[in-house]
Amino acid sequence: MSLEQQMKSGLLYREYGHKDEKDIAYEKVIERQRKHGKELTFAYNQTNPSDYGRKRELLQQILGSMGDEVWIESPVNFSYGCNTHVGNYFYANYGLVVVDDVDVFIGDYVMCGPNVSICVTGHPVYGEYRRDGTQFSLPVHIGNDVWIGANVVIMPGVTIGNNVVIGAGSVVTKDIPDNVVAFGTPCRVARQITDEDKEYFRKGVPVNKDWRE
Questions:
Q1: Is position 123 annotated as part of the catalytic site?
Q2: CB atoms within 10 A of CB 71
């Protein structure tokens, strides 16, 4: 199996040291992608935050795809950038880290608190296998209307549904269904999101009717 197939199939692989000409060529492709993404991300992080046009222009070059009204506070770091796909109305606070050796898909109206890490890549448990940098990568999917709290870590292969809140400090190791609040290490569903949440924005405090004014 080729290096590209291994990467995209969730199997163990190495990013370098291959002998097959096809794999050597692909090593060079991903090395260029990584370098290009890191250079653009460096430029993004050094750009004045008031220069909205330049920052959006850079984001369009960094990301695989992006929708309207996308804002990511600096600093941000990507492994590649080109493997991350962001929908409309996305906001990420300071310190977002996206380890995107394979695809990360983020839906519409997603918010990330400070220091969120999204990681598609892991390493085998058996120590000898890690000595040459062997790893595996599994895509991450995040639905629409998701709020990810500060210091959350999202692990390889996880799918987070629509209309979900992930509490601060959580480590998300397994899929999270639609319409729930989940938190903890490991992250677990705490409760459903219900019509009561339309009436009270936090416990015992009703939604003020003028909040859109």
A1: yes
A2: 14
- Convert the pLDDT of each residue in 129-187 to its tens digit: 998 899 999 999 999 999 999 999 999 999 999 999 999 999 999 999 999 999 999 99
CA distance 177 to 209: 30
Residues with Cβ < 8 Å from 16, sequence gap 6 or more? 27, 133
Give the amino acid at 116.
V
Of 18, 36, 85, 123, the catalytic one is 123
Reported pTM = 0.95
pLDDT of residue 211: 85
Residue 77, Ramachandran bin (φ over 0: left; ψ between -120 and 50: alpha; else beta): beta
